[in-house]
Amino acid sequence: MEKTFAIIKPDAVSKGYTGEIISRIEKKGFKISAMKKIKMDKKTAESFYAVHKEKPFFEALTTFMSSGPAVVMVLEKENAIAEWRELMGATNPEDAEENTLRKDFGKNIDNNAVHGSDAPETADIETRFFFADIECV
Ligand code: UDP
């Protein structure tokens, strides 16, 4: 079994999509190993997205990610990293395929509803950023 780290971003939480997104996650066969609602401050969002520090969208991204509550999760499944990215859809909801979360719940590339790790190392780093071992069942 592989684990990946996921976020239901502030846009989706504030619009009341949390339950529907969790339901879609479970229907796809992911086991939720850890989950909690958090509110990042700006510094925490900057630290989480440090890899994008030099990108033109860094300021907007970290302001958005610290704008309200988000739900952080660890998802477990065979091939979880790739399968979660498939369920999320393309970064830009306009390019996302039918029946993906970003197509159904994302508004635009800045407000794209969900986050997912892109590799095992980042999944581990991102999980440890938010969760203690005791929280991952
Ligand atoms: N992002 C953005 N503008 C861009 C590119 C990315 O606001 O032009 C945001 C978007 O929310 C995306 C996040 O930065 O989800 C991280 O970008 P990445 O390229 O890692 O995309 P992802 O892995 O989330 O699909």
From TrEMBL:
Ranges annotated as spanning the membrane: none
Catalytic residues (positions): H115
Q: Which cofactor does it need?
A: Mg(2+)
What is this enzyme's EC? 2.7.4.6
Query: Which GO BP terms, alphabetically?
Result: CTP biosynthetic process; GTP biosynthetic process; UTP biosynthetic process
User: One Pfam family name from the record?
Assistant: NDK
| Reaction it catalyzes | a 2'-deoxyribonucleoside 5'-diphosphate + ATP = a 2'-deoxyribonucleoside 5'-triphosphate + ADP; a ribonucleoside 5'-diphosphate + ATP = a ribonucleoside 5'-triphosphate + ADP
**Predominant subcellular localization, coarse grouping:** cytoplasm
The UniProt entry, under InterPro entries, shows: NDK-like_dom, NDK-like_dom_sf, Nucleoside_diP_kinase, Nucleoside_diP_kinase_AS
Keywords for this entry?
Answer: ATP-binding, Cytoplasm, Kinase, Magnesium, Metal-binding, Nucleotide metabolism, Nucleotide-binding, Phosphoprotein, Transferase
Q: Which domain of life is it from?
A: Bacteria
- UniProt subcellular location: Cytoplasm
Instruction: Please list the residues that bind ATP.
Output: K9, F57, R85, T91, R102, N112
Sequence ranges assigned to domain Nucleoside diphosphate kinase-like in this UniProt record: 1-137
Name a single GO cellular component: cytoplasm
- Which is an annotated GO molecular function term of this record? ATP binding
Known partners and oligomeric status: Homotetramer.
Per its UniProt record, what NCBIfam families does this chain match?
A: PRK00668.1
Q: Which PANTHER family match?
A: NUCLEOSIDE DIPHOSPHATE KINASE (PTHR46161), NUCLEOSIDE DIPHOSPHATE KINASE DDB_G0292928-RELATED (PTHR46161:SF3)
Entry's family note: Belongs to the NDK family.
Q: Tell me, what does this protein do in biology?
A: Major role in the synthesis of nucleoside triphosphates other than ATP. The ATP gamma phosphate is transferred to the NDP beta phosphate via a ping-pong mechanism, using a phosphorylated active-site intermediate.
Q: Which HAMAP family match?
A: NDP_kinase
> What protein name applies here?
Nucleoside diphosphate kinase
